[in-house]
Amino acid sequence: MVPGMLDAKGTQILAKSLFKELRGSGYTPNQILSLSTELIDLVTQDLKSAHDGLHPASIAGQDAGSWRAAL
Predict the structure, then answer these.
(1) Phi, psi of 60 (to 5 degrees)
(2) Mind listing the pLDDT tens digit of every residue in the chain (71 residues)?
């Protein structure tokens, strides 16, 4: 599935799948909540940067795989 074509049902399926994968890998509910909060913060910064005309990719500050190490 192409990310740009993710509808409400697809988003729900993706979220459930990610949650099950994380729980199956031993992550606690608090760790998953912390990850979710960080994702919301990044999306908020991305939207704010886009609104201000900044390059959104520059706000992340780390590669996509490093979130696992942070938990």
Answers:
(1) -65, -45
(2) 566 677 889 999 999 999 999 999 999 999 999 999 999 999 999 999 988 886 655 555 555 455 455 55
The ranges assigned to domains in the chain are: 28-71
Backbone φ and ψ of 35, nearest 5°:
-60, -45
3-state SS of the chain is CCHHHCCHHHHHHHHHHHHHHHHHCCCCHHHHHHHHHHHHHHHHHHHHHHHHCCCHHHHCCCCCCHHHHHC
Residue for token digits 């500050």?
A: 61
Q: What does the pLDDT read at residue 66?
A: 52
